[in-house]
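Memo to structure team: turn this sequence into structure tokens by end of day. - J.P.
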Amino acid sequence: MKDIKEDYISLAQAQQLAQDGYGIFSKREIYNLCIDSVIDCEQDEQTKRWLIKRSSLIKHLQTNDIKREGCGWIRWKQGDKFVLIRGYDYPYAYNTRTGEIANMRTGHILTPSPNRIDDNFYYQVQPILNGVKVPRLVHKLITNEFPNPYRRSCTHHINGNRLDNRPCNLILVHESEHAKLHSLMKTDKEAYKKEIARIRKENKQKLHKIPHLDYNNNENYYFWMWVDTEGYRAYINNEQIPLDSIKMEEAETRGDDI
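Reply from structure team:
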């Protein structure tokens, strides 16, 4: 038998991979695909166990666009909305009420498992990317789809429960704001609520990107300013932009892709 390659998986792994992409499959169904040479596979001469080529299985499932019954268990309620999570093999989305991650093709809810990071536990799931399951933190999958005009990179759980990933409990913050919020949670509840309200308001604000007024772009960098709507109107009318309208300034390296 050939050396086992990274792209080959066991029958049980193939069943789970197919289920996460298309619904409930039995091992017998996957086994029949092997016997009929529908997908690329190999059989160990000693153990008689099948090894299935992952990419071949995924290609077969996608090409035949198989629809399965008996999968899912999305807990639908009137008014539930789902927001698409971009960048994966299947149309995953999060429930805006519960924070559950679902495969919208099958209705299959991805089962979260606890992951320990710096003495704290967070839920993670394993969506499929390029035919491979990849671990992803649930709160990151959700907040990556939030409006983020200030490019905040940290996610804060408002009620302090890191396993509560309802979108209403998540907010994008800067690292310095994150530390401040955790301090206020213990010392000043009212100030904590006001800081959350302030950040939420900023995260909903629309910003406009314009060339920097104080720097000229050169062969190495593009210089930009991010201003609010009032500042953008002033810029369009060739007026001086109010200083409090300037929210961010940045320089981008000039390249062929810019």
